[in-house]
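Task: complex structure prediction.
Instruction: return structure tokens for all chains below.
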Amino acid sequence: MVIPEEIPNLVDGRAVPAASGQSIEKLRPTDETLLCRAARSGAEDVAAAVSAARAAQPAWAERTAVERGDIVRELALLLREMRDELSAVVAEEMGKPLELAQGETDAAVEMGLFVAGEGRRSYGRTMTASMPHRTVLTMRQPLGVAALIMSFNTPLPNIAWKVFPAIFCGNATVAKPSEHTPASAWLFGELAREAGVPDGVLNVIHGFGPEAGAPLVEHPDVDLISFTGSATTGRWINETAGRRLAKVCLELGGKNALVVCDDADIDAAVRWSLASAFSNAGQRCASASRLVVFDGVYDAFREQLLAGVQGLEPQPVISRESMDRISDAVQRAAGEGATVLSGGERLDRPGWYFPPTVVENAASDAEISRTELFGPLTALFRVGDLEEAISLVNGSAYGLTAAIHTASVHRAMHFAERVQAGVVVVNAGTHGSEPHMGFGGVKESGTGWREAGVEALDVYSDLKVVNLVVDPLSA
Ligand code: NAD
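Output:
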């Protein structure tokens, strides 16, 4: 697949440059060479996309749920057919291994197939009523125009998790992918056209957050904003869209902890910790950036973990700013008394390579213990027992995922009940999700919505309660 030199926006089914004529340079994370340019959009481009979406939405909503599901399925099957090409594009724009990108393409396909099935399975409820001869039932209705704004880390699942349920529910959409991953979003838009998604139902606007994302959030004709990204941006979106009472779904960051008890299988705990902390260069909302280990097994765990880190192949992070931010945070932590056990300094080679880094002895309220760095970095904490572990885990402002390694079902269930998180895992990694499982967090990790699963339908539709009162004498 050849990535075009200039990636255009997709507005009303047409490929168009930004109104300003300007573009953004997208560099490869592996060597900082130019991959492509993407439209540098602003308020004018956003207005055109929102207007196209508004115009297209009523006819799209008139199609039956089965028909919309069928088109979603066509798109999912096309993504599957284009698996190699899509994965290669993702690997190149992210600088990640091809196998990782292939797994992500598969996840995007599975999301489409799951949502497509809702066409024939999107059930409502019927209810009893106190009034005689009254039947009450629920039906879903679309919201209208949905703005979909996302992060770069797994660009295809990120766009798939939002576009599939949003259009299935009868909305028209304006997607704003990350400025770091324009190529996969462009290809997704092209394939959507080919699959029969009508013009205007999916529009894609490229550009920087404050220039292209902010006008979308502020646009009075946008009914729903579904956002995946940092808590800082999410907070601004919630405040801004909240002023006009628009619906807002936020999927934000995490400072996820993996707890290792003294009865854990240490080999497995180390294996899962390495995968949880360092896969995708730690650029996962669910990454384990805190490893909370019982005193009795701390030394053995640390030794095996550090041996495992030596065997990892460094992957680049998404940008120079990201690399510098992580590096600065490690330096500050070291200045405050934390010990850097491995990594800690950028690699001396082209590209944005920061090695897998492990620190210990950071205070639980230190910046590195509290702040999400979204990179290949994890901090070790020593605890005496499960209560201390739970209190440390819950000490975070975030609450996305949490994992525990233990042989005891009592400890596992106690942890699951007490930990403040949207997803809990026993004896594995701080995972993401699967298409049929609701995913999201508590506290500053989100606003309570769940993406994926049938729960996603609640984000992208409104519930209508219909009362049917009949007169038996007229029967
Ligand atoms: P970010 O907040 O910088 O950007 C996310 C998106 O928002 C990008 O498309 C960006 O251009 C846009 N944006 C930035 N400023 C904006 C503004 N003022 N108005 C509108 N849009 C704006 O986040 P990021 O660095 O791309 O992603 C990393 C974050 O995403 C981490 O916090 C990570 O945990 C989170 N994340 C969460 C999930 C989840 O499901 N909870 C999944 C993936 C990533």
